[in-house]
Amino acid sequence: MTKAEIQQVKLRFGIIGNNETLARDIDIAIQVAPTDLSVLITGESGVGKESFPQIIHQYSRRKHGQYIAVNCGAIPEGTIDSELFGHEKGAFTGAISERKGYFGEANGGTIFLDEVGELPLPTQARLLRVLESGEFIKVGSSKVEKTDVRIVAATNVNLTQAIADGRFREDLYYRLNTVPIQVPALRERGEDVVLLFRKFASDFAEKYRMPAIQLTEDAKQMLVGYSWPGNVRQLKNITEQISVIETNREIDASILKTYLPAGNNAQHLPTLFGAKDNKSFESEREILYQVLFDLRKDVTDLKKLVHEIMSERGTTTAQPIDPAAYITPETPDTPIVTQVPASVPTIIHPSVKPAAPVDDDIQDTEEYVEESLSLDDVEKEMIRKALEKHHGRRKAAAQDLNISERTLYRKIKEYGLD
């Protein structure tokens, strides 16, 4: 199409802008309109995708048929099949009469499925059948019905990612995407932003019966440089706000800046809540290490507190420790789990019941010394003493330690006791 013909289409459907990508999209829509090919319109929310199905319908042989626009994301999952394909009387609770459904109503016309990426998977299967054979079945019926409908779909969802996540059928995607139209975001359209602002300002001036607002040069530069995450819809809302609120009809950059959320060139990134001291963890292992380090510090502080209490009570006699008392029962073929004195953190198997306290009085050494006791060293010493006690007879030593012979052999080799 010539530029003049494309400009005529823009005027007819209220499309503002001189962007080449936008003009190419309009040309594709007009070229594909006389066919019955399915069209998938993609683009960010607020870019104006809803204009293209109307262009396709009005320039097709179906222009005298019905045009129905359906927002798939606004219909509850439990009723969307009934809305699209209809239902029989008594098909479900509340179905007091028969319903024809959008595909029945739009026979011979065009259906625009906006936010098609929000359709539930069972409904996607029904839609695929309509695209392949023009057949559908009402909810609560067994009768196959035919429809002659042109389907134009639109979405702001990345359908390729949705397919990978199992949220959208791949076969349906290829049936819908026969002719793709990608609508550019407002931030990619350059000076079109100023043209749109001027158009919206004129419309609101007429609506509210007041002079139209105008932008200074620095305000125009700010308008073009802003990221516009809400695209044309956001620009229209901001223009309306300024038109109603500002008494000065000439808007400079300082005034405009107060209406742009998060400032100019804002980076719309997710916020991390609950972060402390800018510290982050890259893996669950690092989190576990941090918890263990914190636990060790807490235990050390607790040991110091107990020592201070014992010092105040004047307790100076140390309670002798029998190392053999710290070998705990185990299940076969499992590592030996040791219990250590109260002054050392203890890791106990869930199946092991805690031993009864030997004495009600807590005793501690006269002088507190923070010590580092290795569980491996305690385990090695117990095994060595058991072997000496039974003169190297491993079976008897294993029984004394209450562990399996195989575990004992492995531990002897591991600690070099053979």
Write a brief caption for the model.
This protein has 418 residues and is of the alpha/beta class. The protein has helices at residues 3-13, 20-32, 51-58, 80-85, 102-105, 121-133, 159-164, 170-176, 192-208, 217-225, 231-245, 253-257, 284-313, 375-389, 394-401, 405-415, and strands at 39-42, 67-71, 110-114, 135-137, 144-146, 150-155, 179-182, 214-215, 250-251.
Write up this protein.
The protein is of the alpha/beta class. Helix content is 43%, strand content 8%. The protein contains 16 helices and nine strands. β4 and β5 form a beta hairpin.
Topology:
Elements: H1 3-13, H2 20-32, E1 39-42, H3 51-58, E2 67-71, H4 80-85, H5 102-105, E3 110-114, H6 121-133, E4 135-137, E5 144-146, E6 150-155, H7 159-164, H8 170-176, E7 179-182, H9 192-208, E8 214-215, H10 217-225, H11 231-245, E9 250-251, H12 253-257, H13 284-313, H14 375-389, H15 394-401, H16 405-415
Parallel strand pairs: 1-6, 1-7, 2-3, 3-6, 8-9
Antiparallel strand pairs: 4-5
Helix pairs in contact: 2-3, 6-8, 9-11, 14-15, 15-16
